[in-house]
Specification:
This protein is mainly α and about 240 residues long. It has one domain. The protein contains 10 helices and no strands. Helix 1 packs across helix 2. The longest helix has 30 residues, at about 5-35.
Length: about 240
């Protein structure tokens, strides 16, 4: 069991393991369960989509708890590597195959013709948002290119950090867009999960980012001695007086 590991490390491992399991469940939920209605069996039949997500969350939590109970301390690194790998490839698949493909090849932001004939005050948030983002084909294509590049960077270990950093504002924008414009509870959940997947990948690289920050700070700081700093301060003070 994970007894000798620090509480912060345990919380981090639980986070990435839980969402790694969740990265698998949405595929089953969206494409298998929804398509073949597999939850429509006896007592498992959910009366609403929310109950289906609650059921999946319970399964993920129980599975994560079982993994934590079974995994020993010397296997922490393997668990971490496996979880981050699942998050990487799942997010890369979503960004390249789902989001980028829809924007670059097909028309993702399509609205009903009836919405175009409505007064602006009667148009739903969904149709209004989709119309705004789909108004410019060039904008849609460029957004798809960014998602494709970021997703492709996740496929390589050397460029995973760069891809995750590039995806952070992209997934945050998708999450805010879906949650504040009433595009549907299903999409709201997925967009939030994709943002949390990316956060999990970035948490893996926190030590590297801290090390890079300290190295950059030290390198830049060594370029300015006390005399140079004093000279710059005099320049700033002189020009700010105008």
């Amino acid at each position: 069991m994970l007894q000798k590991t620090s509480k912060l490390k345990i919380a981090y491992l639980f986070y990435i393991t839980f969402f790694a399991l969740y990265a698998i469940f949405p595929v089953l939920t969206d494409y298998v369960v929804q398509t073949y209605n597999l939850l429509d069996i006896g007592f498992l039949t959910p009366p609403s989509p929310l109950n289906a997500w609650i059921l999946i969350t319970i399964i993920a939590l129980l599975s994560c708890g079982f993994i934590f109970y079974s995994v020993k301390n010397n296997h922490n690194q393997k668990l971490e590597y496996f979880s981050v790998s699942v998050l990487r490839y799942s997010l890369a698949f979503v960004m390249i195959i789902v989001y980028a493909y829809c924007k670059m090849v097909s028309k993702q932001f399509q609205i009903r013709f009836s919405a175009l004939e409505m007064p602006l005050k009667d148009v739903s948030d969904f149709d209004l948002t989709w119309y705004f983002y789909g108004r410019s084909n060039a904008q849609t294509f460029l957004l798809g290119c960014l998602e494709f590049i970021a997703g492709t960077l996740l496929l390589s270990k050397r460029t995973t950090l760069l891809g995750a950093l590039l995806l952070l504002p992209i997934t945050a924008n998708i999450m805010l867009l879906d949650n504040f414009n009433d595009v549907g509870p299903h999409l709201n959940i997925f967009s939030t999960l994709f943002f949390l997947f990316d956060v999990g990948i970035l948490l893996f690289y926190v030590p590297d980012m801290v090390q890079l920050y300290n190295a950059t700070k030290q390198k830049l700081g060594s370029a300015y001695n006390s005399k140079t700093k004093k000279m710059y301060f005099c320049y700033v003070k002189f020009f700010s007086s105008f």
